Amino acid sequence: MLIAIGSDHAGLEMKTEIIKVLKELNCEYIDFGTNTSQSVDYPDFGEKVSDAVSIGKVDRGILICGTGIGMSIVANKFPNIRAALCNELFSAKMSRLHNDANILILGGRIIGKDLAKEIVRTWITTPFEGGRHTNRLKKITLIEDKTMKGGPKKSKTLWGSNNES
After folding, report:
1. Cα separation of 62 and 21, whole Å?
2. What's the pTM?
3. Residues 6+ apart with CB under 8 A from 22
């Protein structure tokens, strides 16, 4: 399995620990940065990892920032991405079993390194369950096709146009 990994400055220490887990699990990885503890902008690194997963250059991705929220927002802007912010083991397991999450997001200032390593182990080793969940993912893909692909456009929500003045 080939994993893209990236972080901002707030996730750098945790990223170093997560890379050790990837090696332990015999996962290949591409480190998209950052490699500095100086302040950087998380969207720059979230974009690189998310794009690599979105186009199929890698199998899955892991992103780490201070809370995980910013990276989650960035990752879920990309087509074909199902990014899950997981701060405990149950969510990590279920994100794979039911949602086939392809990017794991961690909050470097929210959880400790030991828990983060266990979350990564769980997330990497848990397969997608398929079955009834496959149809749900197809529905998500249909929503994505209507709302994301083809660039920005005026959208019509279930409640009518959200672009009315």
Report:
1. 12
2. 0.90
3. 3, 5, 29, 120, 124
Residues near 97 by Cβ (< 8 Å), separated by ≥ 6?
126, 127, 128, 129, 133
Q: How far apart are CA 138 and CA 149, in angstroms?
A: 15
Domain boundaries, the chain: 2-130
Does 2-130 carry CATH code 3.40.1400.10?
yes
60 in a known ligand binding site: no
Contact 83, 75 (CB under 8 A): yes
Find how far residue 80's CA is from the centre of its chain: 11
Residue numbers annotated as active site: 65, 98
The reply to whether 109 sits in an annotated binding site is yes
Digit-coded pLDDT (tens) for 49-70? 999 999 999 999 999 999 999 9
